[in-house]
């Protein structure tokens, strides 16, 4: 797993996945996709998809070291996800088509 | 797992049979199995004490079947049964005890997965063993687990295609699993290689299990599989959370640093014990300055944060209580922006704080298209901003200087300088200018929502109206609903004051009504007045509060809306919208209850800034007005001409303070002051209370009139006193100290006014010290001396017995104390004094004609006519000469009538009076002042001369005084006789017209020389005095002479107390002047 650290100077490029709320730079989203949701979001290499399925507007960062043991992860329903930085609140709405797809097959990420 | 595979071979049909676990009572039939298994679980649970040692095993035993049951149930019966599943799980949890809590879900998941396997893997023993192994050593279990996961992954893949994996995939599952087994392993290997090397197997397994374990049920059952939050509440087994101080604004960096450190040390021997860390920073957050770290032990945190920048683990670290933990992660729902909503801009620095309206929101809700009023200078300041600074760098295009004001976009303006930057369509009125879009004058821009202030927008109506009026057709299309919504969520400016009646409309205490007793920050203390809690005092946050009013309450709008400061009565209440009928305009307005207060003042706001109703204000140097109406931004004043005009406060020069001492004379000459009630003479005969006196105008306030707030203005000479404040009697029959004398008109004709009603006596009441005869009442006929007087009454010390009684002045007859003659003390001293001397009779005679109501009427003309009447009197001495004399006077001071008009009466009389009282000092200015001086002079000489002569004859001292005072006179003073002659010479010299004077003068002159003639002397003096007085009085000359008289008076006064009374009398400059000269000598004589 690559570094989840983002230098302060790069933090302005951070985006949060609207499904799993993982926070990464847009560059990383483009290169690797969302580690949790890639199979249905297909962010890898697709700037458009990144644009529509991730959000620059998020609040509260969680540095998740141990998704299984952490209560925070459980509470945030991150306990199935990979380690990394997550957002507590992500603003924005998934495009409808993506949303329906996900709803049909997966549970969607709630935007509390 | 791999060993399981072959067993099942390809016979999926036998699956159900094979599946049956160890317990023998499981039937082959799936339909039967389900209920049974369930029963078994329950039995297990209940009977667990019995099987105590085997509890876990039992559990395990039960689990597979349970799992299978679940599957089969859901498969066979009804997919929605997951709810039931959930419940069952709950039951299990309960049964199994707390210790399992943490792992329960995982296990459930596992079990679910394993169920699948179990479907293949019929071998119960193996299964149980595996479970045990799993518990004993997860590491050992990896393979199996991973296998599970892999399988699951495959399943998932199937599921992706087939959608509902369990329903559809199950029959073929085994075969698929079988077939894919090898591939799966390869892939797993590849995948693992991709994984970070440092990630240990257990973690990886866990992650994978979590990942897919979690997702699978989700995939199978949809959203409803999400575990309710209440089941996720933290327990004691969960790691604790500590709050650690950090540098404000650096929360995110710290979180990333922690992440970095975690990743650095993972897999090493000093792996961090921190499971997670998070921050809730943000500009508005109350939780900034802290990060929260989750770990089992505090020491883990110390290690993890040791030496890290911006975070201070060594300062106090707070353990967050378990019950508070969920609150840390609570998120507030961002209000969704709706088109039409009002927001404030944060970002284009030029527009920071400006109001904007949302037109549209992008699909992902991250950007909004807003319109706002542009701040353009159309390049007016372009040049300076484009200039290159000295160091060759362009100036930063930040916020250079003051920002231009908000104005709608104007194409014409833009074209002036930047015609090439502008393009657009005049038809639709859309333009692009300098890269910005404008529609209908508004700038339209896409702005990220983080650059919008959505909360506490508080648009004022002024701002909003700008948007509304900008509509194409000019009609106001205010979206009041959106406005209301914007206003509603802003409680920021709601202030409650102790005494406000407040209703709780939100939360547990909803419906409670009480009176605020204390307000501290956001907490309002309520004394509950209604409901069950009545009488109690509760504290509530002001968020869920609103003010409560009742229909009929008298309220005032205190803020927020353009109806600010309106006062009115509540007529309707709907939710928190209150409709009220304003007092001032009788219109209905609707405002939010938060903008209302109970009003304690009636009738609208009485003031605008420093101006309040009924104030007298100066509009320009010649115009004053009384404020009769105060609007929100303007005033209505009634100016001195009776004209009501609407003005802006800025047009007011200043407020004239109310002068309590202001005095005027009514048409009767009575003194009128503030608060007196007067009535107009003629006209509408309106009656009112005086609220202002300004020069000759009085402002009256009447309660019977509604026009101009009951205020009207009139001239003071046009009103009659009805009732004076404090019972002043303004028109007493007898003379009394009355400032009416200020009315110069009244003063004018002193000699004619002997028995004038209005007392125009300055200073001492002339009646004082007089010998009087009581004409009526119990003491009728008795003689006494007046000791004290009021306006109407005199206190008389009786001669007969030592008693002082109070008698109406009207019942007194004044007598000369020496001669016993009846005198009229109101007459000029000359007459009165010389009464016995013969001159008195003459004086009386002359007086009589004047005595008429001419004076009372206040019209001077009669006075003049009095003068003419006098003429015969004079005529005796030298009738013909009179006229010239008059004319001569006229020459000097202008025609007398005008002279009167001119000479400010007020001033002169006062001066005169002052002179009389005050002495030489005061006189002199009286003299010098005004253009009268010449007139007095001419008169003075004439009249004085005799006086002088008199004094001269009377005593040198008097002469000295005179002489000392005016050298000019002094010259004549030395020799009375000579002076007399001089005077003679003078007078003719001055003007032949002074013959009139001549007559008296000689008399005086003649009389003066010989003391014996002293008696006579007065007479002419008296005569002469009146004459000039009559003439002079009108003209300042009177005053002047009075001054003189006063001067001379003192000396004689000392000698002759009685005359003193006369001196007092003379005081009214009017007659004073003539008298005094005459009197002076006379007193001397008396002495």
TrEMBL record, chain A:
Q: Which residues form the Spt4/RpoE2 zinc finger domain?
A: 14-91
A single GO molecular function term of this UniProt record: single-stranded RNA binding
Q: Has UniProt tagged this entry with the keyword ATP-binding?
A: no
Chief site of localization? nucleus
- CC per GO annotation: DSIF complex; kinetochore; mating-type region heterochromatin; rDNA heterochromatin
Tell me the GO BP annotations in alphabetical order: 7-methylguanosine mRNA capping; heterochromatin formation; intracellular mRNA localization; negative regulation of autophagy; negative regulation of transcription elongation by RNA polymerase I; positive regulation of transcription elongation by RNA polymerase I; positive regulation of transcription elongation by RNA polymerase II; regulation of rRNA processing
What InterPro entries would the database entry show?
A: RPABC4/Spt4, Spt4, Spt4/RpoE2_Znf, Spt4_sf
Q: Which domain of life is it from?
A: Eukaryota
Q: Where is the protein localized?
A: Chromosome, Centromere; Nucleus
Transmembrane region(s): none
* Assigned keywords, A-Z: Centromere, Nucleus, Transcription
Keyword Nucleus assigned: yes
Where in this chain does the entry annotate a coiled-coil region?
none
Q: What does this protein do?
A: The SPT4-SPT5 complex mediates both activation and inhibition of transcription elongation, and plays a role in pre-mRNA processing. This complex seems to be important for the stability of the RNA polymerase II elongation machinery on the chromatin template but not for the inherent ability of this machinery to translocate down the gene.
The text of the family note is:
Belongs to the SPT4 family.
Protein name in UniProt: Transcription elongation factor SPT4
UniProtKB/TrEMBL annotation, chain B:
Gly residues bias: where?
A: 828-843, 951-961, 1036-1045
Q: Does the keyword Nucleus apply?
A: yes
Q: Where is the composition biased (Polar residues)?
A: 63-75, 878-896
Q: Which Pfam families match?
A: CTD, KOW1_SPT5, KOW2_Spt5, KOW4_SPT5, KOW5_SPT5, KOWx_SPT5, Spt5-NGN, Spt5_N
Residue stretches making up the NusG-like N-terminal domain? 238-332
Segments forming domain KOW = 495-522, 548-576, 671-696, 765-792
Acidic residues biased stretches: 79-95, 103-122, 142-166
Molecular function (Gene Ontology), one example: transcription elongation factor activity
Q: Where is the composition biased (Basic and acidic residues)?
A: 1-11, 33-45, 167-186
Q: Which residues fall in a compositionally biased region of kind Low complexity?
A: 1046-1081
Q: Report one GO cellular component.
A: DSIF complex
* Gene Ontology biological process: mRNA processing; regulation of DNA-templated transcription elongation; regulation of transcription by RNA polymerase II; transcription elongation by RNA polymerase II
Localization per Swiss-Prot or TrEMBL? Nucleus
State where it is primarily located. nucleus
Stretches the record annotates as Disordered:
1-186, 383-405, 733-763, 824-979, 1035-1087
- Sorted UniProt keywords: Elongation factor, mRNA processing, Nucleus, Protein biosynthesis, Transcription
**Domain annotation Spt5 C-terminal: ranges:** 858-1068
Q: How does it assemble?
A: Component of the SPT4-SPT5 complex. Interacts with RNA polymerase II.
What's the stated role of this polypeptide? The SPT4-SPT5 complex mediates both activation and inhibition of transcription elongation, and plays a role in pre-mRNA processing. This complex seems to be important for the stability of the RNA polymerase II elongation machinery on the chromatin template but not for the inherent ability of this machinery to translocate down the gene.
Q: Which family does it belong to?
A: Belongs to the SPT5 family.
- What protein name is recorded for this chain? Transcription elongation factor SPT5
Tell me which species this is from.
Coniochaeta ligniaria NRRL 30616
